[in-house]
Amino acid sequence: MATTSMTTTSRALALVLLSSCCLLVAVDAAYAKKPNLSKNDFLSCLAAGIPARQLYAKGSPSYGSVLTSTIRNLRYLSSKTCNPLYIVTPTDVKHIQVAVSCGRRHNVRIRVRSGGHDYEGLSYRSEIPEPFAIVDLVNMRNVTVDGKARTAWVESGAQIGELYYGISKASPTLAFPAGVCPTIGVGGHFSGGGFGMLLRKFGLASDNVLDVKVVDANGKVQDRKSMGEDYLWAVRGGGGSSFGIVVSWKLRLLPVPATVTVIQMPKMVNEGAVDLLTKWQSLAPTFPEDLMIRVMAQAQKAVFEGLYLGTCDALLPLVTSRFPELGVNRSHCNEMSWVQSIAFIHLGKNATVKDILNRTSSIRAFGKYKSDYVTQPLSKATWDTIYKDWFSKPGSGIMIMDPYGATISKPGEADTPFPHRKGMLYNIQYITFWFGEGAPAEAPIKWIRDFYAFMEPYVTKNPRQAYVNYRDLDLGVNAVEAGANVSCYQVGKVWGEKYFKGNFERLARTKAKVDPTDFFRNEQSIPPLLA
């Protein structure tokens, strides 16, 4: 299938569309509750079914503050960023249906934002020169817990800290296996799999989704009964925003003990960090499922951070017999409830449980992220090189490594869209931060791309796998087929099989069934594989 070539005419069209995307000035409810626009206009269409106070047009007084409220990566808080024409902040599923229907009618694509943590900002910005709007789910954050049934319904605009807090209020001995950062939005996180310190005990967040309510590309509300198993399979780990707008999720809650134990063991290179890390690679995936020890490596240090579902008395014999070199003793144990561990691990020892309700990110920086999977341990010599050569370079960042094994590795590769299961030792997240536009970005971006190239011999191959929630446009972007106005499947395979392996084809066939015109489209949305 051929892709669109950029002729002189199409360049001109792209510039017109880009101008309309980035420069249009309109009004919002702050000073015009009834916009004086044609009945055929997209905004008028929205206003017919959504209260004006929930609509924000570019150039209106409140637009900027609403747009930037959950931009987590300052790379995209720039006048050069192509932002939406309109922001819709629904409070009801009917408002989402209106937004989708109006978008289809007026050829305005819809992107959806829950927490704003998409690493490439694709939930609120576009690299594609076409007009778009975003549905920002900030006002749809309800959490309803049934402690007796061990289930919960959570709306996609909730942050996982709000979910964790709601669960803890219902029962201190119930939990849910999602991410470490409390400000992550539920919608995007669950859509791509979602994992944290409970991954070895309970697997992914998406593995524990029982039902969903989703507005499809036709503006209809679907659930498990109506959508069919392929559709449900796709939204539980197939990446956010490709198949519709998931409004809410029904979750299986899982039992945890009243007391858990957190350890944090920083080790310098001159204290044996390289030897410890070399051993950790093969050891951590074999621990009992109640123990998770991840590693954060940077500069001349490695921090071994663990969560054990039990008391210090039970943890010490286990870790001292299996990993005596780490040197864990009673003074390193921090006993607490599971929900307290969320605050402790991400926010520090002085954080309270209520702090996980804070919707403001603790990191305000520019960033670039990449990911890898490892099936064979790196040699001590390789780790020596990483610390000596790579962590000493200008712009160097951090490696966060999460061990797999136990529950996350039990499902088959095709059981869910998330294929990184059996045989995975650990996942790597590469992160580099900087402060300021222009020159300050050069060294960090060069470092992370060069380091990623250096790591190629030591990670998975054919394809080199990546985690979709660690979005990385360096892996490839969609191209629109000439004359078809849908994303090209063959182009999408370049990045898609890195995230999903062989599951990418099933995702694309499902996309063709539920959104054949590719309405929900972005730079790395699933393309429809049409017959």
Automatic annotation (TrEMBL):
<dbReference type="InterPro" id="IPR036318">
    <property type="entry name" value="FAD-bd_PCMH-like_sf"/>
</dbReference>
<dbReference type="GO" id="GO:0071949">
    <property type="term" value="F:FAD binding"/>
</dbReference>
<dbReference type="InterPro" id="IPR016169">
    <property type="entry name" value="FAD-bd_PCMH_sub2"/>
</dbReference>
<dbReference type="InterPro" id="IPR006094">
    <property type="entry name" value="Oxid_FAD_bind_N"/>
</dbReference>
<dbReference type="GO" id="GO:0016491">
    <property type="term" value="F:oxidoreductase activity"/>
</dbReference>
<keyword id="KW-0285">Flavoprotein</keyword>
<keyword id="KW-0325">Glycoprotein</keyword>
<dbReference type="InterPro" id="IPR016166">
    <property type="entry name" value="FAD-bd_PCMH"/>
</dbReference>
<protein>
    <recommendedName>
        <fullName>FAD-binding PCMH-type domain-containing protein</fullName>
    </recommendedName>
</protein>
<feature type="signal peptide">
    <location>
        <begin position="1"/>
        <end position="32"/>
    </location>
</feature>
<dbReference type="Pfam" id="PF01565">
    <property type="entry name" value="FAD_binding_4"/>
</dbReference>
<comment type="similarity">
    <text>Belongs to the oxygen-dependent FAD-linked oxidoreductase family.</text>
</comment>
<dbReference type="InterPro" id="IPR012951">
    <property type="entry name" value="BBE"/>
</dbReference>
<keyword id="KW-0274">FAD</keyword>
<keyword id="KW-0732">Signal</keyword>
<dbReference type="Pfam" id="PF08031">
    <property type="entry name" value="BBE"/>
</dbReference>
<feature type="domain" description="FAD-binding PCMH-type">
    <location>
        <begin position="80"/>
        <end position="256"/>
    </location>
</feature>
<dbReference type="InterPro" id="IPR016167">
    <property type="entry name" value="FAD-bd_PCMH_sub1"/>
</dbReference>
